[in-house]
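Ticket opened by: R.M.
Priority: normal
Category: complex prediction / small molecule

The reporter submitted a protein together with zinc ion and asked that the result be attached to this ticket for the collaborator who will pick it up next week. Submitted input follows.
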Amino acid sequence: MKHGIFHLGLAVTLTLTGCNINIGGSDDDENQGTSGKATQYLVEIASATEGIGAREASTEQEVRAGNWIYDKLTGFGYDVTVQPFSYQQNGMMLSSKNYIIEKKGKIDKTIILAAHYDSTGSEHDSLGATDNGAGLAAAISLAEQLKGKSLPYNVRILLPGAEENGLNGSLHYVKQALKTGELENVIGMINYDTIGGGDIVYVHAAHSDYDEYDGICKKLSLDKTDYSAATTMRDAMLEASIAVKGESGKFVVHPAFPGYPEGETGSWSDHAGFACAGIPIAYVEATNFNINGKGGYDGYSQTTHPDTWDCYETWTASACDRKTETQWGRIWHTGYDRLEKLEELFPGRVNEQLNNNVAIALELLTNEKYIKTAP
Ligand SMILES: [Zn+2]
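Result attached by the on-call engineer:
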């Protein structure tokens, strides 16, 4: 993500190494609570020394991350659907892959959970630890833990490539799924994109103003009549977060700001195509809507931590000098999106947010009661 700032990764010849990346982790299977091995997986994904590191769309590093996903999921015993796709970028044809698994539930209705695996901002030293290493680590840990559980609904986990340069993987997935009919029994979609790092973990629904999504929906040849801004998935996630973390630790639904009605979000991440296709979405992201950032109260500034600002002014919740500020409290796509940097700024925060997210999604996906109105 997000806000249409798409960086073009280096186009490289894609070579499938087929390697089995095994880094840093031990093979012990001791129970690590509901969060499973998410913390370990995050290191394997986002550490440049012990893991993969930066994973710019359609680069060899993205391929490496894809192979890591494939090895993990097949290792858990899943049949993995690999969905290759190509897309145009600045006159070039680039390629990437989506990875998909599904575990059947008692009722033939499906919840999709998606987490893109590419990263961006490597030119600013970002390793994509939270955007979206954390979302991917959570999704892989969930896949592992769901394997042994009986589920009320089918759970489909989609790991799209090439999100950062135009939602390419998820849009390809939705386009294909509309043709094959595999979205017909889908009752909701959860988008895990940057679920850690920022000051507050939010859950959003799609925007009540269709125009905010029109540009994306047009790419799928969909229009207003297909679109859904239903809040059922957001509300279900909120309820599940209360069940797991209580009122004090629940997800936050952001208050209304100009351009962003309460609890609603824009079309800049992988949930957008699903909302266009009429599916209720819940988008989890860690940021800080209380900051009056470069573009106003838009959730693009993620933290008040002074290190991430040239100068942050508490009483205005903004930059001391809006004209000269260069950082704006951003973690995503910057040199702060690295595990060691995040640990220095916020000791323990990312792991806690990661583990909470895994526990909350596990609660939602293993209990029938949270989805109030299945269409
Ligand atoms: Zn992202």
